[in-house]
Structure formats: C-alpha cells, structure tokens
Amino acid sequence: MNKTSEYKFTVIVPFYNEEDNINNLEKKLFEFTENSAMSPAAVLFVDDGSRDNGPALVQKACGRHDNFFFISLVGNTGLSGALKAGIDNCYSEYLGYIDADLQTDPMDFNLLLKYAEDFPLVTGIRARRKDGYFKKLQSKIANGFRRMMTHDDAVDTGCPLKVLHSDYAKRMPMFTGMHRFIPALIQLQTGGRMKQIPVRHYPRTAGVSKYHLWNRLVSPFKDCFAYRWMKHRYINYGIGKSNL
User: Fold this and answer.
1) DSSP assignment, residue 126?
2) Separation of CA 63 from chain center
3) What is the pLDDT of residues 204-234, one digit of tens each?
4) Cis amide prior to 173 (ω within 30 degrees)
5) Mean pLDDT across the chain, nearest whole number?
6) Which one, of 36, 43, 45, 46, lies nearest residue 108 by Cα?
7) What CATH number belongs to 3-131+156-208?
8) Number of H helices, E strands in the chain
9) How many angstroms separate the CA atoms of 21 and 159, rounded?
10) Which value, in Å, is the radius of gyration of the alpha carbons in the chain?
11) 3-class secondary structure per residue, 189-214
C-alpha cells in the first residue's frame, strides 16, 4: 500500500540539483507538517534525475521523519514530468505543490488549506515578488498571453504554491509544460472553480534557477496553442449510477 494514503494532505516537492537548499527545506517542511491546518500531513520529494548530493540529503531527511517520502526518477524529465510522477504516486485526499528553491514558504499552505474543501484548486499569488525586473517582465508577458489563450483568469499561474483535490489532479491531461496550465486544466473539469490567495515570496538565496528566456517565455507561447487544440478535444464525463 502506498504510504501517502495514510495522510489527508501530502506536499509534493519536485527538485533537481538543489543540494544547497535541502537542509533548510527539510526544516521548513517539518515545521509545516507539525502545524498543518489539514492533518495528518506528509511530504513527497520527487528527485528529477539530480546530479548533485541532493538525493542523498533527501533520503537522510526521510530517515529522520516518518512522514517524509521520496521517489527518484530515471533521468531528468523536467518540472512537469516530476510533478506528474508526484501526482501519480500520491494517494492522499488532497495534495500540494511547492518548489524546492524556498522562494515560497510552506507555512503559507495554511492560507490555502482554509479553502481546500470548497475548491478543487487553491493557488497562490506571489505578493511583492522578489525576482529581478527582467524575470518579472517575462512572466508578465507570458501570463498575459496565456490568459488570453486559455481564459483561466489565473493571476499568477507560475506561483509554485498550490493545493488540489487529488482526484482532480490525477485527471489532468499531462504534457510537457503542464505545470504552467494547472488552473486551465482543472477548469476543464470544474468549469472554473478555483480560489487565488496572496502568499509571501522571497529571493532565491541558494542554488541556481533552472529557467531562462526559452523555457520561461518562448516555450509557454507554443504550449498555449497545444492547450487550445486539446481543450476542444478533451473528454469530460460524469458517472450517474454504478454497481461497481
């Protein structure tokens, strides 16, 4: 039996070459699970083929905490692939997503969890974002184009702090770049039911960003057209009666 099924809420943490952040991340995540507004809470690390000492540090952290788990992927798949692997291997009723760079605070999950039972997706909005001007400009352009193409009304789809109902998350169509379209993909199933909450944001103090002009700006433009194609062909159904 998958151990995450014993927990009501599991935080999925994809990571790739983040060894300088792991020790602080362990402390922050443990503090959150001890004070989670939804309990019991667990953590699922997803190693996306890291080539540094991060996986070894994560395995040691999991040995120190009974509610910390990990999976390691064979090779680097990218953020969407690692997130899909986490969702596929999470069997809690609710799941969260946070990046390993500590630019958002795990304790802010409690702001989102207040609304988790009523909304299939609760997502953060990075208030007073601490990134550089050029990075924020790229995100603003990409977000504006994405909203125009998807009509998902998400203010900050790139915010790496989200809470989802696991059953909805598992039904999301998966593709490269999927992590940027979570609000739109959830709305395909729910007709627009999501909640957006301001959360804290911090500058990166360790490690190196995995994003650059191509994967922050150019790739999302192409992915928007892929989403539009898929949206008109998406199969959404509901079961009325069953004797299963």
Assistant:
1) E
2) 24
3) 788 666 554 455 556 666 676 666 767 767 7
4) no
5) 85
6) 36
7) 3.90.550.10
8) 9, 7
9) 18
10) 17
11) HHCCCEEEEEECCCCCCCCCCCCCHH
